[in-house]
Amino acid sequence: AIGVFGAAVYDEAEKAVITTQYMIENKRDARAILELTKEYFINQKNNGKQYLVTFSGNNDFLVINHLYQKYDISYSFEEEFELIDLQKEYEHKFQKNIGLKNLEKLHQIDRGGELISGMTLAKTFSKIIKDQGYFDRMPLEKVEKILKYNEEDVVNLFNIMNRWESVTMDDVLILEEKLHREKMEKLALKALLDEQ
């Protein structure tokens, strides 16, 4: 099921990134959220948007296309938009693989807030689907944290796109060295703690 949908567009008149989010509250919401996402994309296309930018979008499209088919909703992203997957673009440009959080680091984007793992989100949405009252019992802070995290995901894709051309292979190598050092420091600390 679709747990949380997030998208962003740049509004020229407002000179701002405008986000849209839908979050499932129980299993009965699935069709309504899917219909809202379809309506959102139709509106964006009607407003002249041509590109749909994702990070590792194949995963998202597999799920959403399956759900559209399951609920007999007719829509084709491939026919309506030019799909751009930033992970694939990065691999093409640098012949290297990268995750979203490290791509954000490469573009000097600091989330500031606490990271949420995909596993944690999957477990939360599984509980929402299985237990009709789970969402109502969730602390408001948890809902806000999920929505804030999702919002940062989509806004950061916009920011990455704006800085895309400024990143060089030297920047990539510097980040890789920094990540390697951090990993070695963590392993050394773990080894030290294990000795005690």
Molecular structure report:
The chain has helices spanning 30-46, 57-70, 77-80, 86-94, 100-106, 118-130, 134-137, 140-163, 169-195; strands at 4-11, 16-23, 51-54, 82-85. By secondary structure, the chain is of the alpha+beta class. It contains nine helices and four strands; from the N terminus they run ββαβααβαααααα. A hairpin with a 4-residue loop joins strand 1 and strand 2. Helix content is 61%, strand content 12%.
Any key phrases for this structure?
alpha+beta; 9 helices; two-stranded parallel ribbon
How would you summarize the topology of this molecule?
Layout: E1 4-11, E2 16-23, H1 30-46, E3 51-54, H2 57-70, H3 77-80, E4 82-85, H4 86-94, H5 100-106, H6 118-130, H7 134-137, H8 140-163, H9 169-195
Parallel strand pairs: 3-4
Antiparallel strand pairs: 1-2
Short description:
The protein is an alpha+beta fold. The protein has helices spanning 30-46, 57-70, 77-80, 86-94, 100-106, 118-130, 134-137, 140-163, 169-195; strands at 4-11, 16-23, 51-54, 82-85. The N and C termini lie far apart (45 Å).
Low-confidence stretches: none
Widest sheet, order of strands: 1-2
* Helix share, percent: 55-70%
Question: What does the largest sheet look like?
Answer: 2 strands, antiparallel
Average pLDDT confidence is 91
Integer-rounded radius of gyration: 19 Å
Shape annotation: globular
Helical/strand content category: alpha+beta
Q: What is the β-strand count?
A: 4
Number of helices: 9
**How much of the polypeptide forms β-strand, as a percent range?**
5-15%
Report the end-to-end length measured between terminal Cα atoms: 45 Å
What letter string, H or E per element, gives the SSE order?
A: EEHEHHEHHHHHH
